[in-house]
Design a protein that fits this description.
The protein is α+β, with helices and mostly antiparallel strands. It folds into three domains: 3-88, Arc Repressor Mutant, subunit A, CATH 1.10.10; 95-183, SH3 type barrels (Roll); 189-283, Alpha-Beta Plaits (2-Layer Sandwich). Helices cover 42% and strands 28% of the residues. Strand 4 and strand 5 (151-158) form a beta hairpin. The termini are far apart.
């Protein structure tokens, strides 16, 4: 682990200690705990303040955070810390696929795409849509890099439609000087709210799914949708409600559970589930 990563990891641990500890601790205590100089800890506190954390060393109270952390910053710290702690041995399939396909270009592509997102620059890409089809000079408006189902993906506007591209299938990237008007962040976030797996779309379908009691703990202990609602029924079964953007994706999700799951709404989803089940059975007839 590099010294730079060690510093960032230490700073996040200082924040964690300040949030959780009821006992007084000082700059000296932290210096001993992390085996660094007191001046190093003082620099850490200053850098944390520059990131928006109201953390101070008080004479009577020791190290304290005086204002609650914003949710955005808390999320950023959690993701950073997990990345720092497990980057050497965590089986990150999506990143491994990207490096295997592009080598050193993997980093170049990520940097270029993120620059285009931040500066609202139109990008021209060559995209391997299938094994035999290479689409060249495709103009896109990059919106967001995200990870789903073992792949790094790019959310982008192409021909006025929101689409997702596998970054591992991008063969070349060329930034242009042309600017585009980005979608509001709220709009981008809403595209993910109703996604069960990786489908990104503006469609909205209300689901009502009955899970028998043997599935109760499994369903209640996991978040499948950010908008989901789970209701316990008197017979021990549970009612799962939510809004999804793809009935095809919802159908494959439901079929994956097997016995003990029944679609109540919408009727179109019920028919898709029945057809999927029939198709699966036909493999054994």
């Amino acid at each position: 682990m590099s010294e730079y990563i060690k510093k960032l990891k230490r700073q996040i641990e200082i924040v964690g200690k300040a949030l959780s500890s009821k006992d007084k601790f000082t700059v000296l205590d932290l210096a001993i705990e992390h085996n660094v100089e007191e001046l190093t800890i003082k620099r850490d506190l200053a850098e944390l303040r520059s990131r928006g954390i109201d953390i101070h060393s008080l004479k009577k109270e020791g190290i304290k955070i005086l204002q609650p952390l914003k949710k955005e910053l808390l999320k950023e710290f959690i993701l950073e810390y997990i990345s720092f702690s497990y980057s050497e041995d965590y089986p990150d399939k999506s990143t491994l696929i990207l490096i295997q396909k592009h080598g050193e270009k993997a980093l170049l592509f990520i940097v270029q795409l993120q620059k285009a997102i931040e500066q609202n620059l139109v990008v021209e890409i060559d995209y391997q849509s299938t094994a035999n089809v290479l689409k060249t000079n495709v103009l896109i408006h990059p919106l967001k890099i995200f990870q789903a189902q073992g792949e790094w993906r790019l959310l982008a506007l192409n021909q006025n439609l929101v689409k997702q591209f596998f970054i591992s299938k991008i063969n070349d990237i060329r930034l242009t000087s042309e600017k585009f008007k980005p979608l509001p962040q709220e709009k981008i976030n809403s595209l993910f709210t109703s996604s069960l797996k990786s489908w990104i779309g503006a469609e909205q379908y209300e689901l009502k799914i009955l899970f028998e009691k043997n599935w109760s703990e499994v369903i209640k202990n996991k978040t499948y949708l950010l908008n989901q609602k789970i209701t316990d029924l008197e017979d021990g079964n549970i009612l799962f409600e939510g809004i999804v953007n793809s009935l095809d994706e919802a159908a494959t999700w439901i079929v994956s559970f097997g016995k003990g799951v029944k679609v109540l709404q919408p009727e179109e989803l019920k028919l898709k589930v029945i057809q999927l089940a029939r198709d699966a059975l036909s493999n054994y007839s």
